[in-house]
Structure formats: structure tokens, C-alpha cells
Amino acid sequence: MHAEVGDKVVMHGRTVGTVTRSGTVVEARGQDGAPPYLVRFDDGHEALVFPGPDVHVEHPAAS
Questions:
Q1: According to the model, what pLDDT value does residue 62 have?
Q2: Taking every annotated instance into account, which residue ranges of this chain make up the domain DUF1918 (predicted)?
């Protein structure tokens, strides 16, 4: 997985009743865009994310 600052991280709920969360990559702490990522979620919470199979990265469209 590869992410850069400004990419959107989407974490899908793994169990029934768990909501999907999304946030923006603030910092990629791994080498060359590798995990872990410091993510600021839509509610303002920041967390270090080690993505698993329930996570995907959306890259902003190039303009």
C-alpha cells in the first residue's frame, strides 16, 4: 500500500454495526509512502494507522 500526504484513507467496518470511517493522511511515516500513516479523521481525531485488508487509499484526482 502506498499513500501520500493529502490522500484519503477509508476504513470499512469489519463487524455488523461498525461504521465506515475516513480521514486524510497527514504524514506517511514509512519509507517512500509506506505505512504507518498519521491520519486525521473527519471528526478531528488523529491516529496512527497500520492498514489492513479493510482499508483502502483514495488518491485525489490530478488537475
A1: 61
A2: 1-57
